[in-house]
Design brief:
The complex is a heterotrimer of chains A (385), B (308) and C (268).
Chain A: H1 14-27, E1 30-41, E2 44-55, E3 59-63, H2 70-78, E4 85-90, E5 93-94, E6 105-108, H3 120-130, H4 135-148, H5 164-176, E7 182-186, H6 194-211, E8 214-219, H7 222-228, E9 231-236, E10 239-245, H8 246-251, H9 256-261, E11 266-275, E12 279-284, E13 287-292, E14 303-308, E15 314-315, E16 325-336, E17 339-346, E18 349-356, E19 370-374, E20 381-382
Parallel strand pairs in A: 3-8, 3-9, 6-7, 7-8
Antiparallel strand pairs in A: 1-2, 1-4, 4-5, 9-10, 11-12, 11-14, 12-13, 14-20, 15-19, 16-17, 16-19, 17-18
Helix pairs in contact in A: 3-4, 3-5, 4-5
Chain B: E1 9-11, E2 14-16, H1 18-28, H2 30-50, E3 54-55, E4 61-62, H3 68-74, E5 76-77, E6 80-81, H4 84-116, H5 119-133, H6 137-147, H7 153-161, H8 174-198, H9 202-210, H10 215-243, H11 247-253, H12 260-268, H13 274-302
Antiparallel strand pairs in B: 1-2, 3-4, 5-6
Chain C: H1 6-29, H2 46-53, H3 55-88, H4 94-106, H5 109-127, H6 134-158, H7 162-170, H8 175-204, H9 207-212, H10 220-230, H11 235-264
The chains are: A alpha+beta (385), B mainly alpha (308), C mainly alpha (268).
C-alpha cells in the first residue's frame, strides 16, 4: 500500500508548531487500526482490502467521491456495519466482537439524527444516561459541552426549533459529551450553506485541537479536507489511492486521480531519457524537461506523465529561453478577485496557470497573447499512471 | 484475515444473527400473523373445502364431495341450464366494474383539486374526503333511502322531468344502487389516487409541453405513468370489495337486484345451503386473489413493495 | 403550485356535496317532526329523547362500545408488532405473509363474515368453543383491524430516519433500550392513530358483526339494519346522527394528531 509521502520542508514560524504537533501525533499510540478490511454488497465491492492506522489526537480525513467507500469504512469503525473480512482495532483492542453500543467511539451523522421527541438537554445527555452516569454529573457535563459549542442558550429547545447549524452543534455535543476515544464524523457539514460551512470548519478544527480527541472525518469536499486535516486518505472505488499529510498529497500526488481530485493539475506526457542522482530528464512534445525527483517517487522507465499545479507554473516576464521554459498562447483569462486563472495552450497541450492579481504584470495579460512559461523542476512530479 | 462462521447482520445499528432475527420476527410479527391466519385464512380454506360438500335434507353439511355447487354457479343446475347464478355473478362483476370506472373518473378531478391546494386548505380538503370514509356505511346507505324517497328533492325533480311517477320513491332501482356504491367507494379511490398525484413531478409535464406535446399527450405520457400505482391501488380497493357488496344492493336494490353478497347471505340465512353459499363466497375470494395478484404484478413492474 | 381552474373547483364542490348529501340528510331528518319519515313537518328534538328511553338501544350502544374497546386494545397490540416487525426484520416467507395480511383489507365483508361463521361453527362442533356472542364478534373485529393498524405503524417506521436508531446504538443503547427510549416514543402518534382507526372500523362494522353475533350481543349497526328493514322509525335518524358525529369527531382528532409528528421530524 502507499507509504506516507515525505512532506516538503516548510518555511516560516508556523513550521515549528506544525513540526511539534506532527511529532506528538507520530509518537502517540494508534487509535484506530484497520487491516485488510473487505466489505461487499452482493456483487459490489465497497471496500477492497483497506489498511490504515490513525493515531491518537489526529484529525484524519477520508476523502473521495460518492460510492468510494469512505462512509462504509466509517460505519464499520463505528460498529454500525460489519466487515466481510479483515480486522478493526480500536485503541489496540480487536473491535470485531464489540457491538456499536459498547465501543468507545461516537458518531456525528450527516442528517444529525437528533431525537425529535427529546429536547436538546436530553438529546445530549442520552449517552451519559445510558452509561448510568449520576444525574448531577450529567447536568454539569451537558451544560459544559453545550457552552463549548456555544449553544448553551438552546438547552430547552426541541430539534424542530433549531436551525441546521444549531442542530449540527447539538449533534456534536451529543457525541463529545461522552468523551469518546474517537469521534467519527460523516460529512457533518454537507447540508449547510457555504458560509456556515466555512465557519464551522474552522470551529471544528480548533475544537479538535483543544480537546485532543481523535477525529475521523468523511468528506467529498477536497478543500474541507485540506483545511482541517492532519492526514488525508484519498479513496476511490474501495481503495485508498494515497494517504498522507495535506501538503504532501497536494504537492506530490501519486497518480492522475489524486492529482485531479485535489484541485486542478496540468498533465504532460513524455518519455524518461536520462536519470541522474536527484533528477530526471524527460522528453516531451514541449521539449526536454528536467524534473527534480525525491525518494519515494515512482521509478518509471519509458512513457510517463508529469504533473504540475497551476499556481506553480511561472510566467517568465524576461522572455528569454531557458531550462524548462515553454511557449504558450493565452486562450482565456478568468478573473476571480484575488487571483486570475489563465487557460493556455502550448502547442497541442492545454495548460492552466494561476497568478495572484497583486503580483506584477498579472493584470496586463490578455487573451491571444503569447507567453513564456517556466515549469520549475521542483514543481514537476512523475505520476504513477 | 480471521474468518467467522456466522457473520452477524447489522441493520439500523442493531446486531442481529440470523437466528436472532427470526426470533425477533416471531415476537413482533408472529402474533398478528398467527391470529389472521387462524381466524381468516384458515377459515377461508375451510369454506373452500366445504364448498365441495353437499347439503343434507335439514340443511346440515355432509359428504359426498361434489363439484355440483360450482356447476350450479356456472349455470348447469340439476334440472338443466339455469342462468340464475351466472347472471348474478356477471351482474356483480359489471356493477363492481361500473362503480370502479365511475369512481375513477370522479376521483381524478378531486385528486388534482386537493393536490392543487396549499397548506391548511389542503389538509382540510383531505380531511373532508376522509370523514365520509370513516362514517358508517350502513347509515350512509340508509340515508340514500331518505334522499331518494317519494317526497325527496330528487324524486320530485324526476317527476317534474317525467322520469318517475308521482309519490313513488326512486329506489329500489339500479340507479339507486349505483349512487349508493359511488358514494360509498369514492373515498377509497380518491385517497390512493391523491397520494400519487401529490407526488407527481410536474417538471416532467412541463418538459413534455416544452417539447411540443399537446394536453392529451402530456397527460398520457407524462402524468399517467406517474399516477399509475395510485390508480391500481384505488382500483383494487374499490373493485374487490364492491363485487361482494351486500348492504347497498340489500337496501337500495330490493328483490330485483340480487348480487353476490345477497346470494351468499341467502344461502347462509333462509336457504341454509352452506356448501353452496361457500361456493359463492369462494367466487368472491377468487376475485380477491386475482386482484392482489394483479396489484402485485403491476407493482413489480414499477418496483414497488407490497402495500404492507 | 398550479392554480386551480374554475371548472375544477365546480366539479370538486359538486363531488363534495354528493359525498356529504347522505350525512347531511340524516342529520336534518333527525330533527324532523314527521312520524313516519316523509316531508318536513317541523323541528323537534324528541327523537333524541326517545333514544334514552329505549333499553335495547342503550344495550346495543353499550355492546358496541365494549366491542370497540376490547377489539381495539388487542388489534393495536398485534398490529403495532406486525407493523414494526415488517419494517425492521426479514424472515423467510415475508413477502407472502405481507400479501396475506393485506387480505382482510380488500376482502368483501361478507366473504370474511361467512368464513368466520363457518369457522366458529366447526369449532363449536369439534371443541365446544365459540358460542356466538360478544367473544366471537371481538375476535372477528380484531382480525380485520390488525392490518390497518399495521399499515399505519409500518408507514411511520419506514418514514423514520434510520440514522436515529443508529445514533441511539452509537450512544450506548442496547436493542431494547433503543426501542423503548427512541423508537416507541417516535411511533406513538402512529400507534394512537392506528388505534383510533381500528376503533372506528369496529364501530362502523355491520356485516361481520351481523354474522358473528349472538343473543344479547346486538350492536348499534345491527339494530339500525333491523329497524331499516322493518320500516323507518324516526329515532333511527337521531341514533345515526349521533354515531356519525362520533365518527367525525374521531376523524378530525386523528387528522390533528397526524400533523404533529411531521413537525416533530423537523421538516423545514
Amino acid at each position: 500500500m502507499v507509504a506516507d509521502a515525505s512532506p516538503a520542508p516548510a518555511p516560516g514560524p508556523a513550521a515549528g508548531q506544525r513540526e511539534a504537533r506532527r511529532r506528538a501525533i507520530a509518537d502517540g499510540a494508534p487509535a484506530i487500526e484497520v487491516e485488510g478490511l473487505v466489505r461487499r454488497f452482493g456483487d459490489f465491492t465497497a471496500l477492497d482490502a483497506i489498511d490504515l492506522s490513525i493515531r491518537e489526537g489526529e484529525f484524519f480525513s477520508l476523502l473521495g467521491p460518492s460510492g468510494c467507500g469512505k462512509t462504509t469504512l466509517l460505519r464499520i469503525i463505528g460498529g454500525l456495519d460489519v466487515a466481510d473480512g479483515g480486522v478493526v482495532r480500536i485503541a489496540g483492542q480487536d473491535a470485531r466482537t464489540i457491538p456499536a453500543h459498547r465501543r468507545p467511539v461516537n458518531t456525528v451523522f450527516q442528517s444529525y439524527a437528533l431525537f425529535p421527541h427529546l429536547d436538546v438537554r436530553d438529546n445530549v445527555a442520552f449517552g451519559l444516561r445510558m452509561k448510568k452516569v449520576p444525574e448531577k454529573e450529567v447536568r454539569t457535563r451537558v451544560e459544559r459541552t453545550l457552552e463549548l459549542l456555544q449553544i448553551g442558550g438552546f438547552i430547552d429547545r426541541k430539534p424542530s426549533q433549531l436551525s441546521g447549524g444549531q442542530k449540527q452543534r447539538v449533534a456534536l455535543a451529543r457525541a463529545l459529551v461522552n468523551e469518546p476515544k474517537v469521534l467519527l464524523l460523516d460529512e457533518p457539514l454537507g447540508a449547510l450553506d457555504l458560509k456556515l460551512r466555512k465557519e464551522l470548519q474552522v470551529e471544528l478544527l480548533s475544537l479538535q485541537r483543544r480537546l485532543g480527541i481523535t477525529f475521523v472525518f468523511v468528506t467529498h469536499d477536497q478543500e474541507e479536507a485540506l483545511v482541517m486535516s492532519d492526514r488525508i486518505a484519498v479513496m476511490r472505488a474501495g481503495r485508498i489511492e494515497q494517504m498522507g499529510e495535506a501538503e504532501a498529497i497536494y504537492e506530490r500526488p501519486r497518480n492522475r486521480y489524486v492529482g485531479q481530485f485535489l484541485g486542478e493539475v496540468n498533465l504532460v506526457e513524455g518519455r524518461a531519457e536520462r536519470r541522474g542522482a536527484g533528477d530526471l530528464l524527460v522528453q516531451t512534445a514541449l521539449g526536454a524537461l528536467r524534473v527534480e525527483t525525491r525518494p519515494g517517487d515512482p521509478a518509471r522507465e519509458g512513457a510517463l506523465t508529469l504533473a504540475i499545479r497551476p499556481e506553480k507554473v511561472r510566467i517568465a516576464t524576461d522572455g528569454a529561453p531557458g531550462e524548462n521554459r515553454i511557449r504558450a498562447t493565452v486562450e482565456q483569462v478568468i478573473y476571480i478577485g484575488a487571483e486570475s486563472h489563465y487557460r493556455l495552450r502550448a502547442g497541442e497541450i492545454p495548460f492552466t496557470a494561476y497568478a495572484m492579481n497583486a503580483s506584477a504584470g498579472a493584470k496586463e495579460i490578455e487573451e491571444g497573447q503569447p507567453l513564456l512559461l517556466e515549469l520549475p523542476p521542483a514543481a514537476l512530479k512523475v505520476l504513477e499512471d | 484475515m480471521a474468518a467467522r462462521t456466522r457473520r452477524p447482520e447489522i441493520r439500523f445499528g442493531e446486531h442481529l444473527t440470523w437466528a436472532g432475527e427470526i426470533a425477533r420476527s416471531a415476537l413482533t410479527s408472529g402474533p398478528a400473523i398467527a391470529w389472521v391466519s387462524t381466524f381468516l385464512l384458515l377459515p377461508v380454506l375451510g369454506i373452500a373445502f366445504i364448498s365441495f360438500l353437499s347439503r343434507g335434507t335439514y340443511g346440515e353439511i355432509q359428504l359426498p364431495m361434489t363439484a355440483g355447487n360450482y356447476l350450479r354457479l356456472a349455470g348447469f343446475g340439476v334440472l338443466g341450464f339455469d342462468p340464475q347464478y351466472p347472471v348474478i355473478i356477471l351482474r356483480s362483476l359489471v356493477l363492481a366494474a361500473g362503480t370502479t370506472v365511475v369512481c375513477l373518473v370522479a376521483s381524478f378531478p378531486l385528486a388534482f383539486f386537493i393536490a392543487g391546494l396549499a397548506g391548511r386548505a389542503k389538509q382540510i380538503a383531505l380531511t373532508l374526503v376522509v370523514i365520509p370514509f370513516w362514517t358508517n356505511l350502513l347509515i350512509r346507505t340508509y340515508a340514500w333511502q331518505l334522499l331518494l324517497g317519494p317526497d325527496s328533492l330528487a324524486a320530485r325533480a324526476a317527476v317534474a322531468v317525467g322520469l318517475a311517477e308521482e309519490g313513488m320513491p326512486l329506489y329500489p332501482s339500479a340507479l339507486a344502487v349505483y349512487l349508493g356504491m359511488l358514494c360509498a367507494y369514492l373515498p377509497f379511490m380518491v385517497l390512493p389516487l391523491y397520494t400519487a398525484v401529490e407526488k407527481i413531478d410536474w417538471a416532467i409535464a412541463e418538459a413534455a409541453s416544452d417539447l411540443g406535446a399537446d394536453g392529451v399527450r402530456v397527460f398520457r405520457h407524462a402524468l399517467l405513468p406517474q399516477v399509475m400505482p395510485g390508480m391500481v391501488a384505488g382500483v383494487i380497493l374499490v373493485f374487490i370489495p364492491a363485487t361482494g357488496q351486500f348492504v347497498i344492493p340489500d337496501l337500495l336494490g330490493g328483490a330485483k337486484t340480487v348480487l353476490l353478497g345477497n346470494a351468499i347471505q341467502q344461502q347462509f340465512g333462509a336457504s341454509r345451503d352452506w356448501p353452496f353459499g361457500s361456493a359463492i363466497a369462494l367466487v368472491g375470494m377468487a376475485v380477491v386473489l386475482f386482484g392482489l395478484w394483479f396489484q402485485a404484478r403491476a407493482g413489480a413492474r414499477t418496483g414497488e413493495e407490497g402495500p404492507l | 403550485m398550479k392554480r386551480i381552474p374554475l371548472p375544477l373547483w365546480v366539479t370538486s364542490i359538486l363531488l363534495y356535496v354528493f359525498l356529504y348529501a347522505p350525512i347531511v340528510v340524516v342529520i336534518v331528518y333527525s330533527f324532523n317532526a314527521a312520524r313516519h319519515g316523509g316531508p318536513w313537518r317541523g323541528f323537534t328534538t324528541r327523537w333524541y329523547a326517545t333514544l334514552l328511553d329505549s333499553p335495547d338501544k342503550l344495550a346495543a350502544a353499550r355492546n358496541t362500545l365494549e366491542l370497540g374497546l376490547a377489539s381495539t386494545a388487542v388489534s393495536t397490540l398485534l398490529g403495532t408488532g406486525l407493523g414494526f416487525g415488517l419494517a425492521r426484520y426479514r424472515f423467510p416467507g415475508k413477502k407472502l405473509f405481507s400479501w396475506l395480511m393485506y387480505v382482510p383489507v380488500v376482502i368483501p365483508d361478507i366473504v370474511m363474515a361467512v368464513a368466520m361463521l363457518m369457522f366458529y361453527a366447526l369449532m363449536r362442533e369439534w371443541l365446544g368453543l365459540f358460542e356466538l356472542g360478544m367473544t366471537t364478534m371481538i375476535f372477528a373485529h380484531v382480525t380485520f383491524q390488525v392490518p390497518f393498524v399495521a399499515i399505519v405503524v409500518r408507514s411511520r417506521m419506514v418514514g423514520m430516519d434510520p440514522a436515529i436508531e443508529e445514533a441511539a446504538h452509537d450512544l450506548g443503547a442496547s436493542s431494547l433500550q433503543a426501542f423503548v427510549r427512541v423508537t416507541l416514543p417516535m411511533i406513538l402518534p402512529a400507534v394512537v392513530a392506528g388505534a383510533m382507526l381500528a376503533f372506528t372500523l369496529s364501530l362502523d362494522d355491520f356485516v361481520v358483526s351481523f354474522f358473528t353475533t349472538g343473543p344479547g350481543a346486538s350492536t348499534l349497526p345491527i339494530l339500525i339494519y333491523s329497524s331499516v328493514k322493518r320500516g323507518i322509525t324516526p329515532d333511527i335518524n337521531a341514533l345515526s346522527t349521533l354515531i356519525v358525529l362520533v365518527s367525525v369527531a374521531g376523524t378530525v382528532a386523528v387528522a390533528l394528531l397526524q400533523r404533529s409528528p411531521r413537525a416533530q421530524r423537523g421538516e423545514k
